[in-house]
């Protein structure tokens, strides 16, 4: 096919400049840092790939990585199906629509550190609704001392904060399905499950792709909420990758190692996101 | 530019990436390519294959660093060979 005009590419230039300053130039700096031992801006020594070898053999990184993958997997496994169920249960017309939309938007408006503080209080066994209720039911719940309880609380907190995002995205996807599909399904006497499986789910694919990628990336770089709630503890039970990285970069001021760590972290996110994207858009190519 | 802490190897690395992007752009302009199916499980354009090759090269280098004591040029040589295979038959 002959290309007549490529001038529209100039419209991409402002975005490219913006991304260069917000992402590409900082990323290049991180690459530069990762091959040097930096004491201060004027005192730095080239060390080659030494930091990478050290980081790749560091058990702290391995443990954080395993925790991080389990956490992101749990987040996706809970929030995506729950978000779809919530979206399917939302009203399609009437006063209930704005009411439910506002209600669902509320958790998304709460800043991360405030979410951590809210759940720090809710989870307390003496004055917190969640902690007090569980203990009253006879469960020995204490998120500050029990790793299992800390994990559950961090997960419940994330589900409380972010399921709305998945639900809102799915709701917008559901609203964009033309009514003729449902009319055809009624004529065929399709069951609720068949309508979901063969009409709604395929039509939701694109918004689900965005929801899964957003929730994966966000949960994979989670920092503030568990940091405020548990401080990464008890022990290192809820210390995820970003907290390990922050301890290394700011706590120990080990910039070279932290830069190498950041790049490995970035490569993992890049690969997983690309795999998700390719797997979910692959059928489009075939269709 | 001092704050970016440049070194000669990293400058050469980024110059190489930039040169690759320029070459790919010129190649596409002079002789537009289409998506095709090779040994990779998905249809890919030239740009897709370059991305896959670069990502595979990054992981290849990390694997060599993590599992062996080999000098890095061996990893680079393997990755260049891999990139050539992916670009030609991927």
TrEMBL record, chain A:
The chain crosses the membrane at residues 69-89, 101-122, 150-171, 258-277. Residues 65-276 form the ABC transmembrane type-1 domain. InterPro entries: MetI-like, MetI-like_sf, Sugar_ABC_transporter. Its main location: membrane. Coiled coil: none annotated. Pfam families: BPD_transp_1 (PF00528). Keywords: Membrane, Transmembrane, Transmembrane helix, Transport. It is found in: Cell membrane. It is a multi-pass membrane protein. Belongs to the binding-protein-dependent transport system permease family. This is ABC transporter permease. The lineage of its organism: Bacteria, Pseudomonadati, Pseudomonadota, Gammaproteobacteria, Oceanospirillales.
TrEMBL record, chain B:
InterPro entries: DUF2160_TM. Keywords: Membrane, Transmembrane, Transmembrane helix. The chain crosses the membrane at residues 6-27, 48-66, 72-89. This is Small integral membrane protein. It comes from Salinicola acroporae. The lineage of its organism: Bacteria, Pseudomonadati, Pseudomonadota, Gammaproteobacteria, Oceanospirillales.
